[in-house]
Predict the structure of Transcriptional repressor NrdR.
Amino acid sequence: MKCPFCQHDEIHVLDTRVSEEGDAIKRRRRCGKCDKRFTTYERIELSMPFVVKKNGSRTEYAEAKLRGSLMLALRKRPVAAAAVDDAVKAIAEKLLTSGKREVDSNYIGELVMAELKRLDKVAYIRFASVYKNFEDLAEFQDAIEEAGQERKRQE
């Protein structure tokens, strides 16, 4: 770090505290050359990975779009809004902890399906039918059987 006044790089930390909001570390510093004092703030910077779509284009992660997909699948289903919020947070956390700068949209789709399977089997089937592009009844039956087997394992 350089002094904002004289650009000297010998800086001493005089005091370190957590900010009033609790979201940053506040450091009081003094320049070793010009002896001027200044304050810096350190904040965590979290950046979501970019989403690589099927056509190869890249776009920013959009929490609103993820929530919209979940809500569409859960439409008229008895699932609490708090449960949807938790699912969105769980997916975002998995994306952040993956450490990747880019993730495939298919990966996000699989995360959504896992959360929907946990929340509501009917919503899971709704989402899977569109996501996996079901073409006939056999594919629906396979998905229903898979969801049913998951339910038996949980009991």
In short: Residues 50 and 61 are 6 Å apart (CA to CA).
